[in-house]
Amino acid sequence: MDQQNRKGNPMALLPIGVFLLIFIGTGVLMGDFYSMPAIVGFLIALLVAFLQNRKLNFSEKFAVVARGVGDENIIIMCLIFLVAGGFSGSVTAAGGVESVVNLGLSILPGKIAVVGLFIIGCFISVSMGTSMGTIAVLAPIAAEISGKTGFALPVCISAVCCGAMFGDNLSMISDTTIAAVRTQGCEMKDKFKANFFIVLPAAILTMIILFALTMQGDFEITEALPYNIFKVVPYMIVLFGALIGINVFVVLISGIAASLVVGVFTGTIPLSQIFTAVGGGVTGMYDITVISITVACIISLVKENGGVDFILNLIRSKIRSRKGGQLGIAALASLVDISTANNTVAIVMAGPIAREISEEFDISPVRSASLLDIFTSVFQGLIPYGAQLLSAAAFTGLTPFDIIPYMFYPVLMAVSALCFIAFRKDRKEKKEQQGQEE
Fold first, then answer.
1. Which of 15, 216, 252, 431 could bond 83 through an S-S bridge, CB–CB 3.0 to 4.6 Å?
2. Is the dihedral of CA 298, 304, 309, 312 positive or negative?
3. Tell me: the pLDDT tens digits for 87-125?
4. What's the pTM?
């Protein structure tokens, strides 16, 4: 049957509804949205999906699931997760994070200490590919700067969180970027470039606002800040290698090798522990890899049962333009992230549906991937029950509600992305316009 004539089945979305009900309900009842592992909720949702659609027996349903998990993008995404984890583990063990922080603090003038926290947070999060790791590294430094300058601690820690969210949706080794690129079927370097120009205005405005809030202060670092420039090299290899278009596996493996060489020669990684350093990072990615596989199973059955068709028809009834389709992807990403409090999981869940929307409304995969990554990060940086703000609050003795009023970057990022939807043509629109002119 032609896809346009398929009305879809709203009941096919029941597994997703069950997951959200269990996950959100447990979080509200326990007062902790991380009290129940997400994978448990997804396994329950998968069971519900298997119990639906009596027209297929269990063997046929397993075949549907196998085809979904065996999709090229799912397999590549999971493999990249694991290799990215290996790089993160090896470069951290080599002392790269500490060197990057100390180098940044040594270079930046004391008068822009809070702006400096944001800039260093941006660089570390882009280099490490993790907002949580960035917050863990910089939160104690933010507290120290607050104590010595007299600036409100929420302002200082918000600068760190804003910087962390900058790289969370931009880094080429971030799990969110990997998920967005693979689910939408585009090149990582293309997504990075498109994403960068969308968020750059937000980053510049954030620096201006932070400078205006703290321009009367000063902060002088008196203690020694040792750093080794060679420990920064692995980050540079990964960053520039990905930018010039080298295969992501080659880039990450090169980064792992460089990290291990630097770590061994500088004495931070004993030769006998080089494999342990890599393995520790790989195991840290097991959760998101297993979740991605399980979600792929659920979405396969949801799609087979007509759930995706129902969503597409619902969107078609409300939206009839390319810009409207982009707004639909933005809204979908935002709602799923608010519901799951995990932007990577949100992208894995929303990604297949977003791809259907992008194909339906002729939106370029690059633009679709950027919107998915941006809008999940927007709300991940604003929800008080998200891991980022909860972590920042725990490190500083604040509450997430103390920090949220100063989270300028996620709000400005949303505004910037909406302006790009409204006024900036994406790649497909430009090609069509050029073809018409010719």
1. 252
2. positive
3. 888 888 888 777 777 777 777 676 788 898 899 889 888
4. 0.73
